[in-house]
Structures
1.
Amino acid sequence: QVQLVESGGGLVQAGGSLRLSCAASGRTFSNYFMGWFRQAPGKEREFVARIGWSGFPTYYADSVKGRFTISRDNAKNTMYLQMNSLKPEDTGVYYCAADGVMERLRNGRADYWGQGTQVTVSS
């Protein structure tokens, strides 16, 4: 089992920045592919970014490329999402996810999920 806990969400004005963290406990963190997903009100959950075991490779949704950066610190069992130039359409609950198989993570069917952290971007 892997337990995931997100933090760092909040209310920010458009153009601002936030840094989300996902702290993992349980099994060996470095064995897992990790990712961020988000869900806006009334919409389906969507992929945001994912990262390989050692920090590479990284992949981003087109909507966040150039603005968001995913990273991880395996020594701290923590993954991050640095979000810059935030837009109102970035509003939603952000979830971190982990899986030993990249395909499942890529398809949004990861084995492990956090409880989510709310990000609200005001215009």
2.
Amino acid sequence: QVQFVESGGGLVQPGGSLRLSCVASGFAFSVIGMSWYRQAPGKERELVATIDYTGGNTDYIESVKGRFTISRDNAKNTVYLQVNSLKPEDTAIYYCNARKVLGSGYAPRFVSWGQGTQVTVSS
């Protein structure tokens, strides 16, 4: 059974930082790329950052480049998202999922999602 358990969110002031974690289970984590997604109130879930199975190749949406860093520890079946210089528009629930290639991009590999971790950026 595929499972994702996200943690590390919280309430932070603009400019603050958090480190999000996602522990995955139920599939061959070490050979599959992973992604972080977020969903803000009233908006669709969007892909934020993605990483290949080695951890050597990463990509980000334009709005978070230079501020967010995705990484992984295959020994711990964990993917991380370091979020720095947070802005109010980063407020969302953050989720992780394994990825699959879809066209020129990536899509969630599994229909199962975790509960996510809430990030709220407010003064």
3.
Amino acid sequence: VQLQASGGGLVQAGDSLRLSCAASGRTFSNYAMGWFRQVPEKEREFVAGISWSGGGTYYADSVKGRFTISRDNAKNTVYLQMNSLKPEDTTVYYCAATRFKVPSLSSRGYDDWGQGTQVTVSS
């Protein structure tokens, strides 16, 4: 599946952003989805994941209560609503798809990746 992420930008601390990831090429609803972010000199960090049906959602402790992942299978799109943004949330965010029904917490569990979208939060 091909993935196109969008919605990043420059915001102030405490603001909100919504990232979108549009999928094409295969049946989107067959894939669990995840959002990751780049950590310097480390493997991409898990942010949030959602099962193929949307019935299960998973979050990193660092974003729990602030970020919400959702999906619209009719629109072949997964979203990441980010509220109460902090400067430490600044980095590139990636969406990813896995052929399994439940998302993996590891970046190695994903088959396809979007190109990344930059989020910058100023203090």
